[in-house]
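Q: What would this chain look like folded?
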Amino acid sequence: MPYVEVKESDLRRLRELAGIFEIKDVITKLIDDFLEDYTKPQVGKPSTTATEYSFDDLPSLVHAKFISGKIGDIASNSTTWNGFLEQCLEIAHGRLGGFGAVARVVPLNIVAGERAEEGYRYVPSIDLSFQGVSASYAARYIGQIGKALNSSVEIDFLWRTKEEALKPGESGRLIYRAR
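A: My prediction, written as structure tokens:
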């Protein structure tokens, strides 16, 4: 069995990131994602044949890789579901008028101020922490933010080639058109 040495400071950080999950499960997922992302040909934007879905009727996003997103005219500056959710929370915080308004719009675990344990991510620009969520919940919350802001939302994604994925290897697009 291979042996990997981990510094104490890195182990503490892993424990924080793991939250309620076992560290070995988190590491295994990170390695699986790394191997899938970097040992197969890179996939850019989903093809023009991506199946479109509504935020009101989300497909299963188990093993769905976030490719790109846009809320209104603002493109995602992240490559992950939670990263784009964070960006949408920042936008909502500014447009809706603060923490309380965001908390009323999105039933996400959020707290004012900095919190790092149990999978929380701190967003210093708005002094808010939120608990990281699965792709399905991130998509749901991003859609709710888009509706609350009356901003169109588009997310391109790719189902990984895994048995549990809804459509392994296929592209999808989530769309909400503001009225």
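Residues 43-176 form one domain.
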